[in-house]
Structures are given as structure tokens and as C-alpha cells.
Fold this sequence. Notes:
The protein is an alpha/beta fold. The protein is built from 15 helices and 15 strands.
Amino acid sequence: MATNNGVHLNGAVHRDDAHENGAHENGAHENGVHHQYDIIEERRQYDIDEGRALLRRVFQLIMDEVIQPNKVERSKVINFKYPKILEKELDLELQENSTSEEGLMELCKTTVNNSVHTNHPFFNNQLFQGGDPIGVAGIFLSSALNTSIYTYEMAPVFSLMENTLLRKIGDLCGYEEIDGTMCPGGSLCNMYAMNLARYTITPEVKREGVRGFQQNVVFASDVSHYSMTKGAAFMGIGSDNVYKVKSDETGKMIPEKLEEAIISTKEKGNIPLIVVATAGTTVSGAFDPIDQLADICEKYGIWLHVDAAWGGSVLLSRKHKHKMAGVHRSDSLAWCLHKMMGAPLQCSAFVLNKKGNLLNECHSAAARYLFQADKFYGAEYDTGDKSIQCSRLPDAFKAWFMWKAKGDILLEQEIDHKFDIAETCAEIVRNREGFRLIWEPECTNVCFWYVPTSLRHLGDGSELWEKLDKFAPLLKKKMMTSGVMMVTYMPLKEKINFWRMVFSNTQLTHEHLVKMLDEFERLAEEVEI
């Protein structure tokens, strides 16, 4: 804080005049960017008490403006600005001197005001929504402790919590001899599965690289997550060697088509590496028939991985876990707890079934400065060498903390509530004029077209579908620029652009849902097409 005479409390001088780096008296730099915040020059160090004071104010801002349901519901989902406009309004430059506490608070407020409020009931754009307050508390604590979870000595509590969480997930799957690791996202979990499957077949690849070995082929449905293609490219398998197995109308992989693809691959002299079953596809929320795919994988000796990044939360529900029947027969599983379960980003688990010490064998580099074999507490408690990362956040803590607070019963109720909301949405869409439900939802994804009044006279001819395809991005623009809601659209296979509402916000009520659909229709009717 600066005093009236310009001297900072810790001895730094507060300068109101233009500084020597080219700032003008009106606060504008030579590049035309206006600086809104006080600059403190000649600071020698940042005082810890100043940091604590700022932290308290930031916490209060979060409580008042972010984790405050009544406040959020009265605000917009987003105060959208085009990138060039936002760049001019923000003080993005990293200058030579320090910024005052008031300046930093203004930056925080500007950040909140111009960010997407994912906990708003009308935010329906991604598979994650909002941030559970208990999980956020977990982030605060783990971030304040500022440690890495590669060794027990650096993260004794977090290491034990991660092991407990992974075992709990493995138990829900019906796995035996459970191992795993937390990952920064489901995409990396899927890459882990590919790498372990390859190591199981050709362990020499770890030392010698991919040249000189038979071509590996990855099998996933034609509506599987794009991380399969990216992972294959990243690992040297090649994106052309991801076989996209045909799915049915709802998005489920067709087992007979998988077996045909495996036979064809083997006849060409290539190696079937891994089959990826999707439990909850990104768009339609379809669950592949895991039991049937497991039969095929066992028949041909192929690794079966379940990408349950989205749908894994059904394991928490006695009512809905049947959608993942057969998961106990899989070799590995990916589950993003930051999606339907509601843990704050990022929080993804990769779990193995009956694979012994495979994670460590495949990924270990045995760095002796970090993973000494003769540690006094037992080297088996050091989990970092199982990961391809070195520094790793204790992501498990926020999910463990939520689970500890709520228990199995309350988590189950939350998952069932989200499915109930989705079923209600589908029922409204099915019977409301102008809306056309595309699939009966299997997960909490509800996909539909909306035909505005101005197009209803066209019938179901090609002109209608051409106009609806162009209508979607126009309505999306209307949503974003008005800021009142966010819903995403996409095409899929032969289907032109349609809308997907997806429900993972625990706080969303039936009243919110009705208001959101009303608002969607109001905006849609204002679009000229």
C-alpha cells in the first residue's frame, strides 16, 4: 500500500509520474496499451504479509463472485468480447516493476468478469460444469502446501490418499490386484493404456524404439474420443493405424464389426494392439457393450481398455452402473472425476486390473537421485516412477476430499439426480413444438434439433436441413454475444448440426431446466435465417 507521499510501506517508492521505460502521463505505453494499475518501482522483495492480505481479498472475491449461487444466477454466463477487444481491455503486459495490491485486485475482478461462469445453471457447453466447493477447498489446501507427488517423503499424506482413491475406483470396477496413477486428463490415460498394451507385446520398444517391429493397430469406435488418434500419432503408432470400428445409430460399437476388423488386421500381418471401449461417448453418451467386446478380446488375446472419461460416474449409482456391465473383465480404465462426478479440473484416474508391476516396468527410468531403492520407509511407497511425469500435482486429494465429505450415498444421489434431469429434458424436448429429439438418452446427454417458427413450413426436405445446418452457428453467436447461456452444437457422421445439452451440474434444478429451454427457444426465435 502506498502512502500519500508516495513511499511504500516496505520502502519501495510509489511513482505516479511516467517511468523511464516509455510510459506517458496518461498511463499509455508507446504500443498504445493503457495501463489501469499503479506500478510500484524499485521494490526489493514482496513482503509475506502483503501476500497474505492479497490472498484474503482474493478468497473473499471467490466467495462473493464465483461460489455464490444467487450472485451467479443473476449474472451472465459470459460477458463475451472478441479477442482483439479483450486484449485491449486487459493489462496483459508483464512489466519491469511491481503492481500494487489494488491493481492486482482489479486484475482479479477483471478476470472474473470476463471469464465463463461454468457453475451458472445455464452453462451447458462442456462435459464438466462448475466446481464443487468441497473440491475447490481441496485445491486451495493442496496448492498452498505446494508439493509434488512423486515420492512419499515429499507427499506422505497425498500419496496414501491417491492409493486409496485408486483402490476405491478399482473396487467399483470389480478389479483384482489394483494399480494405477492419476493423470492430467482422460487423453493421457488413454495414451497410458496404449503404451502399456504395446509394452506387453513388445517390451523391446522401450529401449529400441518403434522401428523394425510389426505394425500395431488400435481399435476404437468411429465416434470414440479423438485422443485415440492423437495418442497413436504421438506414440509413433500412426494415426492411420487407428481402426475406426463402425457404431450403430446410437453410437455403440458393433461387436461383429470389431471382430471383422481384427481378423482383417491379422491377415495383413499386423498386430491388434488394443481395443478401446467407450463408456459414455462425448456427443451422444453411448456405452459400448463391454461384455461382448471382452469376449472378442479374450478370444484373440487383445488388451481391452475402457475409456470411461465421461460415463465412469455411473459406477457410483446402483441404478445406472449396469451400463458398464463387463467392466471387471477389462485390463484398464480411464475415468475423469472432474466431469459428471463434479471434482474441479483436472482430476483423472487411470486404473489397471491384474497387471502386477507393469506400470513401473514400462515407465521407470530409475533416477537414483530421486527413487533410491534403499529408502528407510520402503521404496514401494514412491509412486512417481510409474508415471511419465516427474512433477505431479496431488490431484487425487480434491476427489478424495469430496468423497470423504459426501460418502458413497450422497455421491450416488447426485449422479441419479443428473440422470433424472436429463430424462426430464428429453421428455420436454420430445413433446415441445419445434424441438426434435435425436436419440433416447443413455447418459445425461440430450441431443436435438430445434426448428424455428420461420422454417416449419418447409417440411422435411433438403432445404430445411440445409438451413438448420447454417442456423446452428448463428444461434450460437446469439447465445455467446448475449451472454445468457452456453450450449454447444456439432454434426455427427451423416447428421447435420444439432444441439447437445449435457447435465453434470449437481445444483441444476428442474426449474432451472425449464427456464433454460425457454431461454433457448426465445433466442432461437430471434435469429434470422
